[in-house]
Amino acid sequence: xxxxxxxxxxxxxxxxxxxxxxxxxxxxxxxxxxxxxxxxxxxxxxxxxxxxxxxxxxxxxxxxxxxxxxxxxxxxxxxxxxxxxxxxxxxxxxxxxxxxxxxxxxxxxxxxxxxxxxxxxxxxxxxxxxxxxxxxxxxxxxxxxxxxxxxxxxxxxxxxxxxxxxxxxxxxxxxxxxxxxxxxxxxxxxxxxxxxxxxxxxxxxxxxxxxxxxxxxxxxxxxxxxxxxxxxxxxxxxxxxxxxxxxxxxxxxxxxxxxxxxxxxxxxxxxxxxxxxxxxxxxxxxxxxxxxxxxxxxxxxxxxxxxxxxxxxxxxxxxxxxxxxxxxxxxxxxxxxxxxxxxxxxxxxxxxxxxxxxxxxxxxxxxxxxxxxxxxxxxxxxxx
Length: 384
What we know:
Elements: E1 2-10, H1 29-45, E2 53-62, H2 70-83, E3 85-96, H3 103-111, E4 116-122, H4 126-132, H5 138-150, E5 156-162, H6 169-180, E6 186-191, H7 199-205, H8 214-230, E7 234-237, E8 240-242, H9 249-255, E9 260-263, E10 268-271, E11 274-278, H10 282-287, H11 296-300, E12 301-306, H12 309-322, E13 327-328, H13 329-336, H14 340-353, E14 357-360, E15 363-366, H15 368-372, H16 374-380
Parallel strand pairs: 1-2, 1-9, 2-3, 3-4, 4-5, 5-6
Antiparallel strand pairs: 6-8, 7-8, 10-11, 11-12, 13-15, 14-15
Helix pairs in contact: 1-2, 2-3, 6-8
C-alpha cells in the first residue's frame, strides 16, 4: 500500500500570542465539543480516500490541541483508526502548550496511541515569554516536560524562537543550554517573523518593536548550529535539529512529496497531485452536513488546485532543498524526464557559482550560508 499522512487541526487556544498569525482563537467548551464532533464526521466521510493506503504519521496541531479535554483526543484518534489503516509503527504527534497540559493528559494521550509530543516552549527566559504573550512560564514547561517523561514519552520535540524583541545573545545561549540539558529528541528553532495583522506588526509599524539586527541574528544562528551539533543534534532541515533517528517523520513526508490529508478548519491537503484547503470560517465549517449533503465536499474546500508539471517540478526542488540531504538529480530526471540544469538553468548555475548551492555527486543542496539565504535562492528558482 502507498503511504499517506494525516494532519488534524485544532484551532483553539487560551489566547493569541503577540506574534501568531495562525488560524487559532479562544473558544468555550460547547464550541470545542461541536467542532470535534464535526471534525470526526469529516474524518469518517473521507475514509474512501484511505483505500489501499497506509497512514504512516498523524499530526494533531493548532492552535493548542492540548487545550481540549483529553477524551476528545481519544475520540479523534478512534475515528482515525476506524476510517484509515494506521501503520503499527506510525508516528503520532500532538502539539502541547505547557500552560494547558497537566500530567494526567499525557496518560490519556498514550492510551490513544500518541507516541510523540511537540511542546511549545519558545524561550527559557520568563521576560521573553511575557513579551511573546505566552501563557506559561519556564518553570511550567519544566513541569510539563518532566510529566511527559514520567508517563513514558520517549520522543519529544521542543519548539524555540530566536530573535525575540529585547533578546540578547546571552539570553539565547541560556535558553539553548537549558533545553539541551533536558535531552529532548528533537528541536525546532525558528527565527521570529513579524507577520501582518499581529500585535507585533502594529508595534513594529509604530517603531516600538526592538528586534536584534541582522548581525546579531546571524551570530545567534551560527551559535545555534555549532552548539547543537556539539551536543548531538544534527540539522536535517532549515529549522529542525534531531538526535540520531529522531527526525520528524511527518514533516519529512511533507518535504519529500508524500500524500497527506488535512482535517479541520483551514487544513491543507495534497492528494495525487491535487492541493486544496478547507474553509477558514468556523460557522460555515460547522454548518456543512457532511453526512447527507451531496455538495458537502465542494462546500468544505475553499481552494482546489491541480498541480501542473511546472508546479510539481518547483515543489520537488523547493521542498527537497529545505532538507540538508538536498535534491536527487537522478530522482528528478526519473520523475520528470528532464535534468535540473535543463529546467532551472541560469538561476541554478548562478547559485552553484556563488556557493549558496552545492553539487555533490548527483545531489544538489544548500550550503550553510545558502540555508540562511534560502528564501532568496528559492525565489530565483521560480519558473516563468
